[in-house]
Amino acid sequence: MKEFKLLLPYFKKYLPWYLTGLFFLILTDGGQIVLPLMISRAIDLLSSGGPVLSEIGRVMILMVVTAGVIALGRFGWRMFINGASRRIEFEIRNSLYEKLLSLSSKFYKNMKTGDIMARFINDMEAIRMGTGMALVSFIDGTLMTLAILIFLFTRYRFIAGYTIWPIPAVFVMVLAGGRLLGPRYRAVQQNYSRISDEAQETFSGIRVIKAFVREKYFLFRFGEANKAYQAANLELVKVWGFLFPGINFFAGLTGFLLLLMGGGQVILGRLSPGDFVAVMSYLGMLIWPMMGAAWTITILNRAGVALGRINRIMEEPPDIFNLALPDGGHSGEGAAPQKPPCLEVRNLSYAYPDGRNPILNDISFILESGQTLGILGSTGAGKTTLLKLFCRLLEPPPGTLLFKGRDIRLWDLTVLRRSLAMAPQLSFLFSAPIRENITFGLDEQDYPGEDGLKALIDLAALDRDLAILPAGLDTEVGERGLTLSGGQKQRVAIARAAALDPEVLILDDPFSAVDAETEERILNNVLLTRRNRSRGPGTNIIVSHRVSTLMRADLALVLDSGKIAEWGEPRRLLEQNGIFKRVYDLQQQAQRGN
């Protein structure tokens, strides 16, 4: 039950809804309790041999009015209690989504997409039932049970004493069954997550699966996950299959005992036919509280499991967040009095939490505003890690990275990331038109207009591609940009980053899927546009494996095994017999060979 603490603020917020729903629920139960008495009265009038038509008419009118009250009450409690549960589900789902957006990539390394989706769908449904129908079945069952037992023992003590003894056995079954249901529901939810993840991974990588003819293997994997989900559900059904027939059996015993004892009382004239029917109705009505008790425990078990899975995410502390500063991190307080460099790296060393050795080791350099830095390094040298640290997608050690003379940890995250825009090598596009993907990072008031969009398209050399696409800028790119080539996706990502007009534009090898001619055109456009910014020349960082690309930079940085191997102007590095020169020579030989 400790998992339900998440719901306390919501119960407090929607307390008026629940209290109103409770009123209508009590109204419904009151009508149901009174209705058998009216039926009893009508039967006794009919069996007396000389009923007065007006009396029968009054009873019938009262029955119709009572049925109307019951209908009104049922509408009321469904409207308010179920309405509150739907709103709680809505708010928790929004809060969960907001929480997930605040977590860094470290969290997503261990949490699969399918598992997250299962929490948004299956677990939310369980929470809705736990905050709605579980409450209804508990209150309704408790009120009905107490009212019926009080009524039976008040008016029909002798018969009630003989007929209700199976009820304690039902509650014992319910309690025992509830202890068995929790672990089985947890297994069902976990296996549902596994199925969701298998399906999501398969469809996301469908092109690779088909290219390697691995359909049968993935069909086998999904079949195994589906089999585990089926087995978990069957284990759950076994408990259900024992619990509810058992409840029905004991409920049937009460009817049998009533016929055995009550029938004799009617024959002896000690009990009227109407009273017999009333007692039978009340005993029949007791079946719902018995079922409701089992249902309540079942729903609460399922909701508890779901809340535990949601709480795991909601309680996850974000490892990258805005520090609580008096100025909110927006001002330049704390910066150096003279004009500071755009970016400064001071003795930066960084190791991933799950790594043994640092990926970056004692990195130091300065990049002035308006300069272009080219970075070269082999795979795994730490290039992308360094760029992620600049944007605080990874958290650097304090005082090791400065933007405009101020530790980047002291900048507001929104301000920092709008000031340093990155186009990654592995470009992710949303399932939306190309137009929306290019303007993705802009607020409505910053939308560039058609002329601005055309300038971005020209900058990224997308004009010829748009001419052959079916709807031009309004072409849907499909999930993850499935309908575009790798080069097209990279160029859309370059346009998206350039659209922000950031102070620092970071290009993390975004030309790997682009031919040399197109790369040269894009690079010329980017450098020219950045040099002629209205707010002053922009700073650029370009990662590339092509030395010809890096020759356009003011400064070049060569990383080797996480350390600075070479640093300086590209032309000076060519005069040295280092990594930069060796890579340049190899690429020149390969170019001549082609």
Q: How much of the residues is beta strand, in percent?
A: 5-15%
- Domain count: the total is 2
In CATH, the topology of the largest domain is named Rossmann fold
Could you tell me how far the N terminus lies from the C terminus, measured between alpha carbons in angstroms? 70 Å
Q: What is the CA-atom radius of gyration, in angstroms?
A: 36 Å
Helix percent band: 55-70%
Strand order of the largest sheet: 6-7-8-3-9-10
Walk me through this protein's architecture.
With 594 residues, the chain is α/β, with parallel strands linked by helices. The protein folds into 2 domains: 83-314, ABC transporter type 1, transmembrane domain (ABC transporter transmembrane region fold, Up-down Bundle); 343-593, Rossmann fold, CATH 3.40.50. It contains 22 helices and 10 strands. The strands form 2 sheets. It has a 6-stranded mixed sheet with strand order 6-7-8-3-9-10. Strands 2-1-4-5 form a 4-stranded antiparallel sheet, covered by helices on one side. Strand 7, helix 19 and strand 8 form a beta-alpha-beta unit. Helix 6 (133-155) packs antiparallel against helix 12 (287-314), helix 8 (166-204) runs parallel beside helix 12 (287-314) and helix 16 (449-459) packs across helix 18. The longest helix has 53 residues, at 215-267. It starts with 7 loop residues before the first helix and ends with a helix. Mean pLDDT is 85; it is low at 328-337.
